[in-house]
Amino acid sequence: MLIVMEKTATPEQIDQVVKVIEGLGCMARPIPGGDRVSIGVLNNKGPVDPALFLGLPGVKEAVPITKPYKLVSRETKAEDTLIRVGEITIGSGYLTIIAGPCAIESDGQAMTIAEHVKKAGAHLFRGGAFKPRTSPYSFQGLGEAGLKILAKVRENTGLPVVTEVMDFQTFDLVEHYADVVQIGTRNMQNFSLLKRAGESYRPILLKRGMAATIDEWLMAAEYIMAQGNHQVILCERGVRTFVHHSRNTLDLSAVPVVKKESHLPIVVDPSHAAGRRDQVLPLSRAAVAANAHGLMVEVHHQPEKALSDGAQSLYPEQFDLLCQQVMAIFNVCGREDSL
Amino acid sequence: MLIVMEKTATPEQIDQVVKVIEGLGCMARPIPGGDRVSIGVLNNKGPVDPALFLGLPGVKEAVPITKPYKLVSRETKAEDTLIRVGEITIGSGYLTIIAGPCAIESDGQAMTIAEHVKKAGAHLFRGGAFKPRTSPYSFQGLGEAGLKILAKVRENTGLPVVTEVMDFQTFDLVEHYADVVQIGTRNMQNFSLLKRAGESYRPILLKRGMAATIDEWLMAAEYIMAQGNHQVILCERGVRTFVHHSRNTLDLSAVPVVKKESHLPIVVDPSHAAGRRDQVLPLSRAAVAANAHGLMVEVHHQPEKALSDGAQSLYPEQFDLLCQQVMAIFNVCGREDSL
Amino acid sequence: MLIVMEKTATPEQIDQVVKVIEGLGCMARPIPGGDRVSIGVLNNKGPVDPALFLGLPGVKEAVPITKPYKLVSRETKAEDTLIRVGEITIGSGYLTIIAGPCAIESDGQAMTIAEHVKKAGAHLFRGGAFKPRTSPYSFQGLGEAGLKILAKVRENTGLPVVTEVMDFQTFDLVEHYADVVQIGTRNMQNFSLLKRAGESYRPILLKRGMAATIDEWLMAAEYIMAQGNHQVILCERGVRTFVHHSRNTLDLSAVPVVKKESHLPIVVDPSHAAGRRDQVLPLSRAAVAANAHGLMVEVHHQPEKALSDGAQSLYPEQFDLLCQQVMAIFNVCGREDSL
Amino acid sequence: MLIVMEKTATPEQIDQVVKVIEGLGCMARPIPGGDRVSIGVLNNKGPVDPALFLGLPGVKEAVPITKPYKLVSRETKAEDTLIRVGEITIGSGYLTIIAGPCAIESDGQAMTIAEHVKKAGAHLFRGGAFKPRTSPYSFQGLGEAGLKILAKVRENTGLPVVTEVMDFQTFDLVEHYADVVQIGTRNMQNFSLLKRAGESYRPILLKRGMAATIDEWLMAAEYIMAQGNHQVILCERGVRTFVHHSRNTLDLSAVPVVKKESHLPIVVDPSHAAGRRDQVLPLSRAAVAANAHGLMVEVHHQPEKALSDGAQSLYPEQFDLLCQQVMAIFNVCGREDSL
Q1: Do B315 and B201 fall into the same domain?
Q2: pTM of the entire structure?
Q3: How many Cβ pairs within 8 Å bridge chains A and B?
Q4: If DSSP codes are grouped into helix, strand and coil, which group holds residue A254?
Q5: Is residue B302 within 8 Å of residue B117, measured between CB atoms?
Q6: Is the dihedral of CA C155, C156, C162, C164 positive or negative?
Q7: Is A54 domain-assigned?
Q8: Which residues, numbered 49 to 68 in chain C, qualify as contacts with chain A under a Cβ-Cβ cut-off of 8 Å?
């Protein structure tokens, strides 16, 4: 933290800031400048709250210098984290494709799609049993029946399954059936849920919040890791901006930034970013070209009848093309992971 | 819903759209235009998912016409909802001031602040016992001990208390102690929590999500009302934008829009919008001048020692000035609520 | 500027940064911290480009400390700038109301509206002769004929007039007829136009760009002042965000921030922020309550026939109410300008 | 345009809307729905302003249906526009790489970089002679001397040159020296400049505004085309969002959307999107994988000494790698341009 004083700050005001710093058990180091004084805060154990200084008389700005996260940071653990799910590895050097419908609707629907995506090259199957829906009147998912269908899909196809958990109450259940437990965008800062996820024996796929900075997202992962679960997969899915030609704006800069700041794997969900089928293929290729460690894509054999998110679900043959194209890109430039 | 077809759409493509509409139990009404056909969707009971049409061949756009919410809508209930908390009324014709520290830190801290804000004119006392914090290493609140302090404050001052609930597990507890239960920004779309709030016997203060549209916010209120709890107070607290001279950007247009669309009361939290003490007073005056039904303001007698959000907490004497000024504005133009 | 080094930065990398700083004629002051080194840049005359450091090996961040503007800054000139236009004063202690149609359409239209707004209490008349329109096929304004109508309005009513200039070619003409020359949102960073405005003998009303930070906006004013014209009025008119219930999101925090950073007056345009008539009145009241120095409001006696922006133009009787309400608020809390 | 009436709209209010529509020379077609009436506007020649209806009593919404642009639209011209610059073709089926320094600083600097980027595979050379800078105190470009250096670079290397024009006054000059004239982000809605560009005999590279929707961007291109110059190249360069880990957020969805809506070529500028060197390579690969028709990249042999934008300029050897990787991606999936 660096405290920048007003040009007109008095020695008394500077002293008061020094005292507040020392009161926090830190060291204060005033830095006289050309026309104003700044004060460095040293030896802080964790992050210091800028708020403590911003309101003091004579203080112009409080600039955080060190990042607030620890366990997720590459400064704490330099080597990439690889996450094993059955025989699949997620992380540096791999391209993992997760595919399936938005929601599990029936035995037949799930199996039809699962068989198709497996043949096309997907490594994990996704499908929602508990669905967070904007409207209380929309289809809310099959619940436990959906989880049982997922288990059957896994048994029949060998594909590990990813599914979302929405609350503490159903966490045990979801954890029992899922191979990877997903925490959705709207729950990225549901801290109680993050703490429970931190006690889970399953890897957690943590989606970025709709308006979350990377710092906030990594701090959400920190919540999980701080409870002991170090198996976290980050998932970029677009952020909310003024743009309305896509549902969200896919932020591909997040891929190199997360890779620089953290050792955790990062995958990209182009389906929720786009919200429209015709943008999913170009965004998928772009994500792999940006060296994401994987993709999570929605596929449906009858999207016009899907109970949710039909507009962004690929037709099976589009998914075939996607797999071919992204594997080709990965072979060309993804393996070495050179930024 | 209006389905707009491409200029080049074939009769077969138009037929397919009509069939999908009829498959939903709705009526399709094609409208031949100058150079393209549009198709109206009539007799839909609830909102129809545009996604079902967006991916169909020949479809250019799917434009929702009716709003997705029902119970919150002024079209369902024309007269303003008034919410009673003890002897306080929140809603049209009243200006309710909720004030207190960000977090309850101790008996002494809470009582000192409560006595001050009461004298200055506050109607309810606020203070967090369970605190959602970006970092797992920050102060997380006193928990039940904090709730007990709130109860004592109410007993001593007569002020009803507002406090945040973070999860299902502690809902019973919070509901027991609080007069108004707050659902925070990060939980605005924690649908499990909203459903539990819908079963509560307490009024719910529902903060707007950091990047929520008004539709999404009203749909979150709809979740609560759909479970039977019709006592919902909406709270605008700023949205995330590119702007960084304030923590969030206070969206005061939300006040007239919510009042037009819904019968529910709406209050404004200038403290979290600003994130800096020196913007709280002008934003408070602005919110009341925009005819918000109330304010929720953070006050601390020693903000430089506050365990959270000190930078945005007003000094007690600033809060005195705030109360005087907003009451004067309310007297001048707020009472009649003329838009 | 503070250069924050990586934890792993080598002494050689630190040396290189020091050399770059010294190469700029500045002083480098390394600050050893707990676990990383930071390097202060001192004695810089103007702003230093962070870009020069961001790409150097071992550099983690470059944090600007001092603001890039000079002439607009309150640190350069502490007392408020007051701008005289005829007998009107704009700035601290005054509430100036500028009103009129979006575009000048005809003699009769302009005079009808001007007489009305004068009677209601407006101090200046606004109206566009050269109109920046998103579409080349929309009405582009009457050009010089419009300017002549403005001159006639001034002659008949005594109201000074504000009108927009769009380019260098017509600057002389606009400057000749206008009392205050407006530079619009889309031209806020049209630097050639700003330089020309800097040579004008007229006060300039400079609207904030649709996505401009306050720093960028003040730097645009700095362009004008650097050429010698110190009569700049800033105009907040909403910024573009994800929100779509208003055309833009009015950023009222800008008022206290600009007042703190700069000595220039700041007015608010609620009409372009809202884009809808029914939000103009509450936003106007809010702006005055936030202590803006004035308002610029669109009024039309037949908005449904207006050639541009009819939807946001107030009916004359709505403007009457607006004037009464904002004057009442100004009397209650605006005069002393207490933040 | 579809006018949606309130549920409570009276027959008189509906009649009034019909009259306004007919007053515009259009046909009104009321569509009775389940619980409200909508009114279609047919036979409109150009776009109709929703503003004309939004303020009328009984009107709930006015929904534009047809797009406002004509000449840029794929509905007007189905086949892709190819633009020839010397022996280079820009558009569908080609990957065009434009590279060079942000600003022309000297003969030696320009030639050193130009020779390098030519060898690496660039097709055009870029470099600014007139520089739009946020601060009036920053380096503003060499002006005509810079243009002469560009001409020399072209002569020596055979590379056509792209350079920015900032105003009407210098347009003739820039047009004389440049092979492609660039209009920058901040001038995207400088309509006078667009009109002048529409009279130019040079192809125009039109950058997207920092907060422009695709509609606004295409309308800016429409301004140019409406004056007779049909050679427009669109350039996506990132938009302003709440994200601050990159200078802007690259919006790659714009690529498929523009290709669908328009026949004009679209290239991507990853340097200004990122603002940091270490994101340029992944974003470049991503842009080509999303099937952009080209890239515009900043390269400098001594970025730490660059007079502007050094932090985002690639070192020459990074640009070599970029060319290899994007050509490989283009060969894999770009040639067929399959969305």
Answers
A1: yes
A2: 0.92
A3: 146
A4: helix
A5: no
A6: negative
A7: yes
A8: 61, 63, 65-66
In the predicted model, what is the mean pLDDT of residues D172-189? 98
Lowest mean pLDDT among A50-64, C250-264, D121-135: A50-64
Judge if C59 and C133 occupy the same domain. no
Q: Would an 8 Å CB–CB cutoff place D256 in contact with chain A?
A: yes
Identify whether D70 is part of a domain: no
Q: Chain D: nearest CA to C86, how far in angstroms? A: 30
Q: Which residue has the tokens 């609560």?
A: B224
Mind listing the pLDDT tens digit for each residue in B231-284? Answer: 999 999 999 999 999 999 999 999 999 999 999 999 999 999 999 999 999 999
Is the confidence at residue C36, as pLDDT, over 90? no
**Eight-class DSSP state of D188:** T
Closest CA to C34 of A44, A22, A76: A44
Q: What is the pLDDT of residue A338?
A: 44
Q: Which residues of D touch C274 (CB under 8 A)?
A: none
Give B12-47 pLDDT, tens digit per residue.
Answer: 999 989 988 888 888 888 877 667 888 888 766 666
Residue ranges making up the domain that contains B9: 2-63
Chains that touch A (3 or more CB pairs under 8 A): B, C, D
Structural domain count of chain D: 2
Same domain, B57 and B110: no
Q: CB distance from D282 to chain A under 8 Å?
A: yes
Specify whether B13 is located in the same domain as B88: no
B53 & B179 share domain: no
From chain D, the residues in CB contact with A282 under 8 A are: 252, 255-256, 289-291, 339
- What pLDDT shows up at residue B93? 94
* pLDDT bracket for residue D141 (50, 70, 90): very high
Residues of C in contact with B244 (CB under 8 A): 213
The first and second tokens of residue A156, run together, are 């029949």
* Contact yes or no for D332 and A325 at CB 8 A: yes
Q: Burial letters for C324-339: b for 16+ Cβ neighbours within 10 Å, e otherwise?
A: ebbbbbbebbbeeeee
Q: How is chain C split among helix, strand and coil, in percent rounded to 5?
A: 35, 20, 40
Cross-chain CB nearest to D282 (options A279, A290, A325): A290
For residue D246, the chain A residues in CB contact (below 8 A) are 251, 253, 257
Residue C75 counted as domain residue: no
Give the C-alpha distances (Å, rounded to integers) separating C41 from B279, B334, D268: 30, 51, 35
Are the beta carbons of B65 and D2 separated by less than 8 Å? yes
Distance from CA of B338 to the nearest CA of C (A): 9
Does the pLDDT value for residue D33 go beyond 70? Answer: no
Residue C34 has pLDDT above 60, yes or no: yes
Structure tokens at C67: 């603001």
Do A33 and A104 have their domain in common?
A: no
Mean of the per-residue pLDDT values of chain C: 92
D29 touching B (Cβ < 8 Å): yes
Distances (CA, A) of A299 to A113, A114, A313, D221: 7, 9, 5, 36
Which residues of chain B are within 8 Å of residue A46 when distances are taken between CB atoms?
135, 137
Q: Which whole-number Å values give the CA distances from C132 to A339, D190, D316, in the listed order?
A: 43, 8, 42
pLDDT, average across residues D40-62: 77
Inter-chain CB proximity C50 and D138 less than 8 Å: no
- Residue B75 has what pLDDT? 84
Nearest CA in chain A to C4: A65
Kindly report the CATH number assigned to the domain that includes residue B173: 3.20.20.70
Contact D276 C54 (CB under 8 A): yes
If you measure CA to CA, which chain D residue comes closest to B242?
D242
Best residue in A31, A74, A76 for a mutation probing chain C (most C CBs within 10 Å)? A31
- Phi first, then psi, for residue D212 (nearest 5°) are -90, 140
Q: Taking residues D238-244, report their average pLDDT.
A: 96
Question: Which run of H or E residues covers position D165?
Answer: none
